[in-house]
Write a structure and sequence with these properties.
single chain, alpha+beta, 3-stranded antiparallel sheet, two-stranded antiparallel sheet, 8 helices, 5 strands, about 25% helix, about 10% strand
Length: about 240
């Protein structure tokens, strides 16, 4: 695991902005008597909460065979805008962006605020405290269906703006390959947006969730039942010129 060029701006992360959210894994959602508050909740059409019920629930597959290279070269320019994916996301998510080449390679800017921790973070190329996070970690995706995919679909997931976010490196690196059941952003005000984005990515790519993960998603989203499901991003197949192991 670790903003956008013109070809990505119109499609990226609708609804995935820093917004308020009342729920978290310690609160939010009415109990349903099952010991999993929010597990039986249903949302309105078009909401992230409603979309959770469309996800397949299965156990986690083994991590056997996983490697970052199975998702292609990092930050491939799959949208063909002549900028790599990392710079696309930096251009999209940072403020006061400065470039080394006038249009593409981001030299500096400000993450104001970082969605995961809520602090303002300065980005300086080569000495950065900013990561580009895969909202659905690639290892998590591998264990929940991506191990069966064609390489072009794995490359697409790794470079899809719908699944990418510029964040403070410190909280991000505590996430590892965690899913909603095991990790949420410390910034509670961002949790609804974060979980909605994970639901959107898993629905778009046909990835499954574990039972614990589904329940955790519903527990968060029950506290914000009108949270919209994000949409957009890139196609789910990368151009044929890209290859992965």
């Amino acid at each position: 695991m670790r903003g956008v060029g013109r070809g990505v701006v119109a499609v990226v992360l609708a609804g995935v902005a820093v917004t308020g959210c009342k729920a978290d894994l310690d609160s939010g959602g009415k109990g349903n008597g099952s010991g999993n508050p929010g597990a039986g909740a249903q949302g309105k059409a078009g909401s992230a909460l409603a979309a959770v019920d469309s996800l397949t629930v299965k156990g986690r597959a083994p991590k056997t065979g996983y490697a970052r290279e199975r998702f292609g070269t990092a930050w491939a320019d799959t949208d063909s805008n002549s900028c790599d994916t990392r710079d696309d996301i930096l251009k999209r998510d940072l403020k006061d962006v400065r470039y080394t080449d006038g249009k593409c390679k981001v030299a500096g800017g400000s993450l104001s605020p970082d969605p995961y921790g809520g602090k303002d973070i300065t980005f300086t190329r080569g000495a950065s405290k900013v990561d580009i996070d895969h909202l659905v970690a690639l290892s998590d995706a591998w264990q929940k269906g991506a191990f069966k995919w064609d390489p072009s679909k794995r490359i697409a997931l790794a470079n899809d703006p719908l699944n990418l976010l510029a964040v403070d490196a410190t909280p991000n690196r505590s996430k590892g390959d965690g899913d909603t059941a095991t990790w949420l952003p410390p910034n509670k005000g961002y949790r609804c947006t974060y979980v909605a984005a994970q639901v959107a990515v898993k629905k778009k790519y046909g990835l499954w969730v574990t039972g614990a993960e589904r329940d955790a998603m519903k527990k968060v989203l029950t506290g914000c039942p009108d949270q919209k499901l994000p949409s957009g991003g890139n196609p789910t197949e990368a151009p044929a010129r890209f290859h992965a192991r």
